[in-house]
């Protein structure tokens, strides 16, 4: 991939929901562009024709701790190292802005991806609103 992953890459409101749907997630159209205003920073990558093919972000108070979320790579570009490069870029930015801790949750099938990307496994919990 010739292009480089960029921090706070300019992204149109419809692009991330489209990518979310391509990877099999709910588009969450209502989250954009508000997410860009509320997260600490994001990273993205476009393919040579300009389509957004990778995205992820870190949210939090921006003091000591951040939470990494929505790490996604377009299905046609998976298994090429883009995901790990995306996580690495997000963690480099965390270091640059002096975050000391970055956490995330992930499906257990992605354990090796995140441990190879520098994360240590730990226990945690999850709360979901009951509809």
Short description, anyone?
With 131 residues, this protein is an alpha+beta fold.
General description of the model:
- 21% of the residues are buried.
- By secondary structure, the chain is of the alpha+beta class.
- It has four helices and five strands; from the N terminus they run βααβββαβα.
- The model has no long low-confidence stretch (mean pLDDT 92).
- It has a single domain, classed as Aminopeptidase (3-Layer(aba) Sandwich).
- A five-stranded mixed sheet has the order 1-2-3-4-5.
- The radius of gyration is 14 Å and the shape is globular.
Helix content: 25-40%
User: Which descriptor suits the 3D outline?
Assistant: globular
Beta-strand segment tally: 5
Rg measurement, Å: 14 Å
CATH class: Alpha Beta
Structural class: alpha+beta
Question: What is the total domain count?
Answer: 1
Q: Give the helix tally.
A: 4
Largest sheet: 5 strands, mixed
Question: What is the first-to-last residue Cα distance?
Answer: 42 Å
* CATH A-level architecture: 3-Layer(aba) Sandwich
For the biggest β-sheet, the strand order reads 1-2-3-4-5
**Beta-strand residue fraction:** 15-25%
Name of the CATH homologous superfamily: Gcn5-related N-acetyltransferase (GNAT)
GO cellular component, one term: cytoplasm
Organism: Paenibacillus silvestris
Protein name: GNAT family N-acetyltransferase
Keywords: Acyltransferase, Transferase
List the helices and strands and how they pair.
Elements: E1 6-7, H1 15-22, H2 34-38, E2 41-46, E3 52-59, E4 65-73, H3 82-96, E5 101-103, H4 111-116
Parallel strand pairs: 4-5
Antiparallel strand pairs: 1-2, 2-3, 3-4
């Amino acid at each position: 991939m010739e292009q480089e992953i960029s921090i706070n890459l300019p992204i149109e409101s419809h692009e991330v929901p489209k990518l979310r749907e391509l990877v099999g997630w709910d588009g969450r159209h209502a989250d954009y562009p508000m997410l860009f205003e509320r997260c600490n920073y994001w990273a993205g990558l476009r393919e040579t024709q300009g389509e957004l093919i990778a995205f992820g972000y870190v949210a939090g108070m921006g003091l000591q701790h951040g939470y990494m979320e929505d790490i996604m790579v377009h299905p046609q570009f998976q298994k090429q190292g883009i995901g790990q490069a995306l996580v690495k870029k997000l963690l480099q930015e965390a270091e640059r802005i002096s975050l000391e801790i970055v956490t995330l949750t992930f499906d257990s099938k992605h354990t090796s991806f995140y441990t190879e990307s520098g994360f240590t496994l730990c226990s945690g919990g999850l709360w979901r609103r009951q509809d």
